[in-house]
Amino acid sequence: MPDLASVIDHTLLKPEATRADVARFVQEGVELGAYSVCVSPNMLPLDLPEGASIKVAAVCGFPSGKHASAIKALEASRAVAQGADEIDMVIDVGAAVEGRFADVEADVRAVREAVPGAVLKVIIESAALTDEQIVAVCEAAVRAEADFVKTSTGFHPTGGATAHAVALMARTVGPNVGVKASGGIRTAEAAREMIAAGATRLGVSGTRALVEGADTNPSGY
């Protein structure tokens, strides 16, 4: 099982976050060895410490997904131009609920075409979908050439990641597309459960507590 910090997107998306908060958060992510720091797009560009290898991720269409595809594409393109290596976009969950999976695919494809060189993660709000809808949305994301499917924004009232959803997503997308578990992952035990279910990346806001918990209790239990 991988070192937990190395698969974490250290995430700060609170609406009240300030630039000073983000600067401190970036420094913390670097110190902890997180894979990336994930921020709101208006916080870009980030002032990274010299020599830091940490990646930069930005959200797109966040958190509702109720944005025109052209707006999502523009937002993603601007974020990449300002230094984002990765984009975490939110689908129109209502389209998935209605069974409009071709529309979901077109939405993802619009962003994919706008940022061809960036890693694209597709947030599906798995807790708001049935298993059948999760499968269909993941298949649409794969057809649109996404790099990851992601469980949750962490803002939806239905909840965040579950091991069941992660396992279903991983089975659906196969080994060539990543699965990011996000939303409600607060302990090393929960993180390891998601990885065991098939997650290859984790979205975590309380990274220090999680990583330090893993360090003091390496089994995770």
Radius of gyration: 16 Å
Could you tell me the mean pLDDT? 95
The sequence of SSEs as H and E is EHEEHEHHEHEHEHEH
- What is the 3D form? globular
Classified by CATH, the class is Alpha Beta
Fourth CATH level, the homologous superfamily: Aldolase class I
Number of separate strands: 8
Structural class given helices, strands, pairing? Answer: alpha/beta
Number of domains: 1
Q: Could you walk me through the main structural features you see in this protein, from its secondary elements to its overall organization?
A:
The chain is 41% helix and 17% strand. With 221 residues, the chain is of the alpha/beta class. The chain has an eight-stranded parallel beta barrel, surrounded by six helices. Helix 6 (163-173) packs parallel to helix 7 (188-197). The two termini are 14 Å apart.
In short:
The protein has 221 residues and is of the alpha/beta class. The protein has helices at residues 19-32, 69-81, 93-97, 101-114, 131-143, 163-173, 188-197, 207-216; strands at residues 8-12, 36-39, 55-60, 86-90, 119-123, 148-150, 178-182, 201-204. It starts with 7 loop residues before the first strand and ends in a 5-residue tail after the last helix.
